[in-house]
Design goal:
alpha/beta; Alpha-Beta Plaits; 9-stranded mixed β-sheet; 5-stranded antiparallel β-sheet; 12 helices; elongated; binds zinc ion
């Protein structure tokens, strides 16, 4: 049984999440990618809700949707709230849209209560956080922050269309939408995408930092051989070396508080049951609140893997795929957000975000803060992703309290 106070906009948020969850590029599952038909329909739907709420709306050519609740003070600064409206393939309905719809509902409550704000309140739905279409995340927020590069413009989607053409011409890279200092901050509500809040029995938490993340490919190369005729002592088995490496990753990661490291993908060549593996490629993903800890652990893994490869007469290499620095949330905004959370529940746990968010990009333009909302079993990027309506209600109250106190 769900019970909402009669004035509570949380029920509307739940209904709208359901509506957006039906708008997809693929039948039967939820998939909305950068500048797709479904994204245009979703933007038009949210735009209609924004206009009903009295917001001025703009959609830029990068597909970012921005609604403004204008302050009577024309020279006022701006508080930016929101999240992304794109999804992964076969997504749940909460990752992204929850933050946009909570921000919109907060505006509706403020207007209903005739709150006059000393700042403009912008609600943004970023067009690309997940990076599905061009395999490059954050295209929406990068456009807003003026951080799209000439390299980005030449990215191509699966159909071969260059990004520059998809956005209607590559002449001129977008300038930042907000001048330096114009934004008071960027505040995003998002599902936790992890199990910590659920384990703590709490609906809400605040984010201290978005983790540094490094992704590598580790490659062990040995020698293929017949499974029946090659004695154990003469083998150069790349797969047994790789298995030792996987255990090493788990052990070394466990020695640094808060660090997580994962081997989630493995490719064995020739991958035949009666042939000793010649070559094994493994993914390595390492994350921590401090970039230096990630670098230290990757460095140590590289050294120990080289030793184990030598011992097994294998060759070893570690190839960097991508890395991003840790991004700290703004202490002052985060403290205010935590105080707003403490009005809804007994305490406000501080969490590290192991997943990346648009705040990574927005932090180049403004101080950022994030509110995490409990999701069932920590499950995300999955159709069974779920957030309890009561938790949405608490998140909305915390967000409205935060805005009112900031005002
Ligand atoms: Zn997300």
């Amino acid at each position: 049984m769900t019970f909402f106070h009669k004035d509570d906009r949380a029920g509307t948020v739940v209904d709208r999440l359901g509506r957006l969850g039906e708008i997809s590029d693929e039948p039967g599952v939820l998939t909305r990618t950068f500048l797709s038909d479904a994204m245009a329909i979703a933007n038009a739907q949210v735009e209609a809700w924004m206009r009903d709420a009295g917001l001025e709306v703009d959609i830029d050519r990068w597909g970012n949707l921005i609604g403004r609740l204008r302050s009577p003070q024309p020279s006022a600064r701006t508080l930016l709230l929101g999240s992304h409206l794109d999804t992964v393939r076969n997504a749940g309905r909460y990752d992204g849209p929850l933050g946009v719809l909570l921000a919109l509902a907060a505006c509706e409550e403020l207007r209903r209560d005739d709150v006059i704000l000393p700042f403009h309140l912008d609600v943004i739905g970023f067009s690309d956080e997940e990076g599905v279409r061009f395999h490059s995340a954050y295209l929406g927020s990068k456009a807003i922050a003026g951080l799209i590069t000439a390299e980005d413009i030449h990215l191509r989607d699966e159909g071969g269309a260059p990004l520059g053409e998809v956005v209607g011409g590559s002449e001129g890279l977008p300038h930042a939408r907000y001048a330096p200092g114009e934004l008071l901050g960027y505040v995003e509500a998002h599902i936790e995408q992890g199990p910590v809040l659920e384990a703590a029995g709490l609906a809400l938490g605040v984010v201290t930092a978005i983790a540094a993340q490094s992704r590598y490919t580790a490659i062990f190369t040995g020698l293929a051989g017949h499974a029946g005729t090659t004695p154990m002592n003469l083998r150069r088995d790349a797969l047994t070396g790789a298995s030792e490496f996987i255990s090493l990753v788990e052990r070394i990661a466990g020695e640094t508080e808060g660090l997580v490291a994962t081997v989630g993908q493995i490719k064995v060549e020739p991958n035949i049951s009666n042939v000793i593996a010649q070559k094994v490629s493994l993914s390595l993903d390492v994350r921590h609140a401090q970039s230096s800890s990630v670098a230290a652990v990757v460095g140590r893994l590289g050294q120990e893997a080289t030793l184990l490869a030598d011992r097994r007469r294998l060759s070893f290499s570690l190839v960097k795929i991508q890395s991003s620095e840790a991004v700290d949330c703004d202490p002052s905004l985060t403290t205010r957000l935590a105080q707003a959370v403490e009005k809804q529940q007994e305490r406000a746990p501080h969490l590290l975000s192991g997943a990346g968010h648009d705040g990574v990009i927005l932090s180049r333009l403004a101080p950022i803060a994030m509110l995490f909302v409990r999701c069932r079993a920590g499950l995300s990027h999955h159709p069974d992703e779920h957030v309890e309506p009561e938790d949405i209600s608490l998140a909305l109250r915390a967000l409205v309290t935060f805005i009112r106190e900031l005002a």
